[in-house]
Design a protein that fits this description.
Radius of gyration: 18 Å
Structural class: mainly beta
CATH superfamily of one domain: Umud Fragment, subunit A
Helix content: under 10%
Number of strands: 10
Largest sheet: 8 strands, antiparallel
Strand order of the largest sheet: 1-4-5-10-6-7-8-9
Strand content: 35-45%
Shape: globular
CATH topology of one domain: Umud Fragment, subunit A
Oligomer: single chain
Distance between the termini: 21 Å
Number of helices: 1
CATH class of one domain: Mainly Beta
CATH architecture of one domain: Ribbon
Length: about 140
Amino acid sequence: MNEFLPHSIDEETDFESRLLGDVKAGFPSPAEDIHEKLDLIRLLVRHRASTFFFRVDGVSMVDAGMDEGDIIIVDRSLNPHNNCKAVCCIDGEYTVKRVEIGENRIRLMPANGHNSTYKPIEVTSENDFIIWGIVTWVIKKI
């Protein structure tokens, strides 16, 4: 991520739309009446005060479903776990990677098997390192 510009969710943020119902991915079915109101913030955000939006800049995570230009939703209140996708800060640089947490070792793993440019990052005691927040959702345009 070249630019680290999170967008926070405040208590006034609300994005409500109409949920029309389920849509079959097999055979078509006639449209149904409106079922309920759909609040995207309520659906996608569990902890408003600790949740932020980022735009993905780069292609090192495409195999994890994070393409350049996608929006990721990151929750700072969640505890990191092995293989979680997270926004991390290492030596003042922010990046999104899959985090491998092992005994006495943390590695930041890219998810782009098509590009050997992206190598795992070994976190050592010399690094200034934090796991900033956990990726909970990816929003993408198709």
